[in-house]
Design brief:
This protein is of the alpha/beta class. It folds into two domains: 2-104, Enolase-like, domain 1; 108-366, Enolase-like C-terminal domain (TIM Barrel, Alpha-Beta Barrel). The chain is 36% helix and 19% strand. The protein has 13 helices and 16 strands. The strands form three sheets. Strands 4-5-7-8-9-10-11-12 form an eight-stranded parallel barrel, surrounded by four helices. A three-stranded antiparallel β-sheet has the order 1-2-3. Helix 2 packs antiparallel against helix 3 and helix 7 packs parallel to helix 8 (246-253). The longest helix is centred in the first third of the chain and has 22 residues, at 80-101. The radius of gyration is 20 Å and the shape is globular. The chain starts with a strand and ends with a strand. 2-keto-3-deoxygluconate binds next to loops. This is mannonate dehydratase. InterPro entries: D-mannonate_dehydratase-like, DgoD-like, Enolase-like_C_sf, Enolase-like_N, Enolase_C-like, MAND, Mandel_Rmase/mucon_lact_enz_CS, Mandelate_racemase_C. It is an enzyme of class 4 (lyase). Its EC number is 4.2.1.8.
C-alpha cells in the first residue's frame, strides 16, 4: 500500500491544533496529531517542507522503517519539533494499518490488558474552599482520580487555575502573559489544600498535584514530605528534569510518588530517571514522544523498573492524540493512569471520535484504526490564531522563573 499524498491541516476550534493526514493508493487515510503548543507552525512547516516529500511512494505498512528513516535520516535526531513531526506520521500510519486490518488499534499492539482506562480530571479553584468544591464535583461525576490545583493567597495568577469551567486553557494570549511567583507562598499553601481536601473527600479517591517545574529539588523534597499524610497518587514535575540526576535528591526526602515527562520527547530524556528508579510514572505521550512506536519503547524500558505510564492529556493535545493514547493505554502492561482534560465542544465537533467517558474511565471504542477523524470543512472555519503559554517572574524581583 503506497502513500500517495499527505497534508497538514492547521485549525483553531477553541485552540490551535496541527493534524497530519496521510492518503494511500488503496483509498485508506490516517491522521496524526502534530500539535506543539505555542510552536505549532514550526511543526507544520517541518512536515510540509521536509517530511511529506520523503513519504510519497513509501509503503504505508512499513511503520518501523519509516520511523527510523525520519529519525536517523534527519541526522540531528530528537527535539520536540522533530519528534512531534515523526509522531504525527507514526500515528497516521498506525491508524492506516489498523483500518487495513479492520481492527481497533489496540488489537495490533497486543490486545486489551484491562477493561478500560482510568483517567484523572482537573479540579481547580481560586482558593482552598473553591478547589474542595470542585474536587467534590469531580468525585460526583464519577472520577476515581482527581488532580487538584488552587490559587495561592498573594499571587494573582498561578498555573492550573482556570475560570471555573471544565476547559482550562493556559495558552491565553498572542504574546506570553506574565504571572508572578513566590515559592514560599506556594509551599505554605499547598499542604493546607490537601489536608482540607482529604478532610472533606476521605481517602477513597486518588489525588494528584502538578508542581509544574517550579521548585528546586530540595524544595520539592520538602513539599513531597509535607504531602505524605494525604496519600497522593503522584506529585508531578516537581523540578525541571533536564538534569535527571536532580530527582535523586527529591527521592532521598520523600515517599510521595513522582511523575514526570510531559515535555520529554525521547527515551533519552528519561533513561536515567527510569533505570535509577527516580520516578514512579512516566508522562510522555504519543504526540510529543515520537508516536506509538517510540512510546512503546519507553514503556517497555519503564516496565523493567516498575515505572508505570501516566500519559499527558491536556487540551493542547488534540483528540487525535487522545484517541491513539487510549489504544496504547488499553494495551500497555505497565499502565498507571491517563490524564483527561476535556476539549471544548468546537474541538470535539472538528474531531469526531469513538472514545467515550463513563464513571472515571475512558474507552477507546472498537472502530478500525484509532477511532478519531477530522472534519476538514468544519476545521477550515477556524483559522490559526497565535497563542502562547504564560511566563512566571519571581514576585520580589522579577527574575524569570519556570511557569
Ligand atoms: O496537563 C498538564 O499536566 C500540564 O502541565 C499541561 C501543560 O501546561 C500544557 O500541556 C502545556 O502546553
Ligand atoms: Mg503537567
Amino acid at each position: 500500500m503506497k502513500i500517495t499524498n499527505a497534508r497538514v491541516i492547521v485549525c483553531s476550534p477553541g485552540r490551535n491544533f496541527v493534524t497530519l493526514k496521510i492518503e494511500t493508493d488503496e483509498g485508506l487515510t490516517g491522521i496524526g496529531d502534530a500539535t506543539l503548543n505555542g510552536r505549532e507552525l514550526s511543526v507544520a512547516a517541518y512536515l510540509t517542507e521536509h517530511v511529506i516529500p520523503c513519504l510519497i511512494g513509501r509503503d504505508a505498512h512499513q511503520i518501523e522503517d519509516i520511523w527510523q528513516y525520519l529519525y536517523k535520516g534527519a541526522y540531528w535526531r530528537r527535539g520536540p519539533v522533530t519528534m512531534t513531526a515523526i509522531a504525527a506520521v507514526d500515528t497516521a500510519l498506525w491508524d492506516i494499518k489498523a483500518k487495513a486490518a479492520g481492527q481497533p488499534l489496540y488489537q495490533l499492539l497486543g490486545g486489551k490488558s484491562r477493561t478500560g482506562v482510568m483517567v484523572y480530571g482537573h479540579a481547580n479553584g481560586s482558593d482552598i474552599e473553591h478547589t474542595v468544591d470542585e474536587v467534590l464535583r469531580y468525585a460526583d461525576a464519577g472520577y476515581k482520580a482527581i488532580r487538584a490545583q488552587s490559587g495561592v493567597p498573594g499571587l494573582e495568577k498561578v498555573y492550573g487555575v482556570g475560570k471555573g469551567t471544565l476547559f482550562y486553557e493556559p495558552a491565553d494570549a498572542d504574546l506570553p502573559s506574565e504571572h508572578d511567583w513566590s515559592t514560599e507562598k506556594y509551599l505554605r499553601h499547598t499542604p493546607k489544600l490537601f489536608e482540607r481536601i482529604r478532610d472533606k473527600l476521605g481517602f477513597e479517591h486518588h489525588l494528584l498535584h502538578d508542581v509544574h517545574h517550579r521548585l528546586t529539588p530540595i524544595e520539592a523534597g520538602r513539599l513531597g514530605k509535607a504531602l505524605e499524610p494525604f496519600n497522593l497518587f503522584w506529585m508531578e514535575d516537581a523540578t525541571p528534569a533536564e538534569n535527571q540526576e536532580a530527582f535523586r535528591l527529591i527521592r532521598q526526602h520523600t515517599t510521595t510518588p513522582l511523575a514526570v515527562g510531559e515535555i520529554f520527547n525521547s527515551i533519552w530524556d528519561c533513561k536515567e530517571l527510569i533505570e535509577n528508579q527516580l520516578i514512579d510514572y512516566v508522562r510522555a505521550t504519543v504526540v510529543h514522544a515520537g508516536g506509538i512506536t517510540h512510546l512503546r519503547r519507553i514503556a517497555d524500558l519503564a516496565s523493567l523498573y516498575q515505572v508505570r505510564t501516566g500519559c499527558h492529556g491536556a487540551t493542547d493535545l488534540s483528540p487525535v492524540c487522545m484517541g491513539a493514547a487510549l489504544h496504547f493505554d488499553l494495551w500497555v502492561p505497565n499502565f498507571g493512569i491517563q490524564e483527561y482534560m476535556r476539549h471544548t465542544e468546537e474541538t470535539d465537533a472538528v474531531f469526531p471520535h469513538a472514545y467515550t467517558f463513563d464513571q472515571g474511565m475512558l474507552y477507546p471504542g472498537d472502530v478500525p484504526g484509532h477511532g478519531v477523524e477530522i472534519d476538514e470543512v468544519l476545521a477550515a472555519k477556524y483559522p490559526y490564531k497565535r497563542a502562547y503559554l504564560p511566563v512566571n517572574r519571581l514576585q520580589h524581583d522579577g527574575t524569570l522563573w519556570n511557569w
